[in-house]
């Protein structure tokens, strides 16, 4: 059986600068916020640092259904992860397990107030419309070159973005 959060998804998450966490309050009012520190922890969990998100924390406590998405802005591809979110507090058993990879990423730069633990229930790819509308003429490399031009970004002498 293939893991829900396999190597392709892990790789894409590592290449993504931000993820977007969508939550909804008890009445169903949606809220979407960017998150900067969010590793794929294992085959079914993504952990997200709660640095400054009291609204997301309140929503997750009221409604566990979440959606987390991330893309590589140059390749214009990514993933949408549907799941159930919980909030792990520093005073709870198991918190050290959830926060460890976040602390490794954040160091002392950001205060981590709690951890949003997303247990994935479904994963869907996100791709720019060009991949679907013009599959014979759209490649990842062409999308990257187009995005570099649009964003005014140049590759380093080593070819890195």
TrEMBL record:
It holds the Pfam family PNPOx_N. InterPro entries: Pyridox_Oxase_N, Split_barrel_FMN-bd. Residues 9-122 form the Pyridoxamine 5'-phosphate oxidase N-terminal domain. It comes from the Bacteria. This is Flavin-nucleotide-binding protein.
């Amino acid at each position: 059986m293939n893991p829900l959060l396999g190597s392709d998804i892990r790789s894409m998450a590592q290449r993504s600068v931000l993820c977007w966490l969508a939550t909804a309050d008890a009445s169903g009012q949606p809220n979407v916020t960017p998150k900067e520190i969010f590793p794929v922890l294992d085959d079914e969990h993504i952990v997200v640092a709660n640095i400054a998100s009291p609204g997301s924390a309140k929503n997750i406590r009221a409604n566990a259904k979440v959606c987390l998405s991330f893309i590589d802005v140059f390749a214009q591809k990514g993933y949408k992860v549907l799941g159930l979110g919980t909030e792990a507090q520093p005073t709870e058993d198991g918190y050290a397990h959830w926060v460890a990879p976040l602390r490794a990423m954040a160091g002392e730069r950001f205060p981590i107030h709690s951890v949003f633990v997303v247990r994935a229930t479904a994963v869907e790819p996100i791709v720019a419309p060009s991949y679907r509308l013009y599959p014979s003429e759209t490649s990842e490399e062409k999308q990257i070159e187009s995005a570099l031009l649009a964003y005014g970004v140049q590759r380093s002498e080593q070819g890195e973005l």
